[in-house]
Design a protein that fits this description.
mainly alpha, 55% helix
Length: 222
Amino acid sequence: MKQFNVQRTGADFVPLLPWSTDPHASVHALAAGGVDLLLLDEENDLMKIVPQRTLEDLMPRLESSVYGRLFDQVATLIPQASQELLADWYLAIDLAQTSHVNVVTTAANLVALAVLRLKGVPVTANKVQGVASQAQCWLLQAQLTEHQLFLPTGKELLRRLFTHLLDQHTAWDTYTPDHCSPHAGRLAQDVYALTCGNLMAVQLPAAWSLVRVAALENHLLR
């Protein structure tokens, strides 16, 4: 089982806190800045320093990338998006860009995050997995390409997907399609895990480097 700690930025594995399987103290320290994440997993012989990315580093890259265009495209679905949803989207885009996630896959996960916020019911890890997997598989079956995504047909497909999932009965939100990849929806799942400070649940390796960004985006936008 992983244990968490922090060290001053640039140090050589010098923990500042007691090691703990509960990441909350480390997340709080990371949010304050000036430190990086330490991971320890004796069962898997893991000792790792995870430098934290910064908004100053990520934002200029986003503005000139395809992920920035995607953000603008998805944002047209909900012109009056809440601060909570904007925080989710920014974090998802940061993670997608850092992890080099396929753009169509990223679009599906952004739609899923919007649906989960707008349904007005408590969000759970199972619902995130279900809705995000359904969204990703839906676009996969539609055979939408990255080029088509930015055409009017792509925008209309995203709107149809958004409406379908939003109108779907909440009882189906936890359903994960059998024919989908077991990794479908990982982007939205990691956004939810980072937002909750549940580092044990993150799946994408780059997510470890975005703990401080997640804390900042949630604080700055909410």
